Amino acid sequence: MTPLGGPDRAACVREMFGQISDRYDLMNRFMALGQDRAWRRQAVSAAALPPGGLLLDVGSGTGDIALEALRRDATLRVMAVDFSAQMMQVGRRRPGGQRIFWCHTDALQLPFPDATFDAVTSGYLVRNVIDVRRAFEEQMRVVKPGGRVVCLETSPAQRNALQPLVLFHLKVVIPLLGYLIARNRAAYMYLPQSTQAFKTPYQLALIMESIGLKDVSYHRFMFGTMAVHTGVRPYEP
Ligand SMILES: C[S@@+](CC[C@H](N)C(=O)[O-])C[C@H]1O[C@@H](n2cnc3c(N)ncnc32)[C@H](O)[C@@H]1O
Questions:
Q1: Measured from the CB, is residue 68 less than 6 Å from ligand 1?
Q2: Cα–Cα distance, 19 to 185 (Å, whole number)
Q3: Could you identify which of 12, 13, 63, 227 might form a hypothetical disulfide with 201, taking C-beta atoms 3.0 to 4.6 angstroms apart as the criterion?
Q4: Which pLDDT band, with edges at 50, 70 and 90, does 237 fall under?
């Protein structure tokens, strides 16, 4: 994808996810060698939801995190939002997809009152939005005081002995799989490009703190290529 800014970029991102929606889940399983469910489970655990709690999953796509949350605790009520109708259509058809409330909307303008949800999660969303700070502000606004905002995201490859291997996977293996499986090499060139151009986990944590989230922490895994960030909405602003 050509580097674009603002609404043009958002429109391109939405169109791209629409194009790959049918193959998105299959591609994830191949790219991550079946590990991606475990990563999403980490995000769900980090949300620390109470039994029967209300979860919002932002940029839910085909509902991977939302479904994982329901697998973990069937008493939860889960709302999934995304601006790609096609991604959500695929999610609705998945086993368990009917148990999720789906909402077609923009992560930067959530149509929910303040302090509605017990926790808010996002998986691989913030790298794609045109305003990361605004995305977190919206998530903090709709989570209840004391509730957690959890973000699972890819991180730029770290400079270490494994960097060449990680870059080979990102720049060669993923676009090749994208071409073979999703029949869309461009979309799977965007993934490594946007990952490498994105913020480090430390920088992301600073943004979360700067909007007022407390106890911000992050956990890196998969050789530093992924991170789960957590922050808590304070009781007093
Ligand atoms: C990489 S997918 C991740 C999907 C899912 N969370 C997962 O873990 O597989 C990113 C999703 O974020 C959505 N997205 C990107 N920008 C968005 C925005 N501004 N508002 C709502 N959804 C957005 C895309 O449509 C896409 O479905």
A1: no
A2: 12
A3: 227
A4: confident
CA of 123 to the centre of ligand 1 (A): 8
- For residue 178, being part of any structural domain is answered with no
| Total of domains in the chain | 1
Q: What atom of ligand 1 comes closest to residue 88's alpha carbon?
A: 27
Q: Which domain holds residue 73?
A: 6-156+200-232
The model's pTM is 0.95
Question: Model confidence over 209-220: pLDDT tens digits?
Answer: 999 999 999 999
Domain-embedded: residue 44: yes
Nearest CA to ligand 1 atom 12: 59
Q: Is 213 in the pocket of ligand 1 (CB under 6 A)?
A: no
Does ligand 1 lie within 6 Å of residue 87's CB atom?
yes
CATH number at residue 66: 3.40.50.150
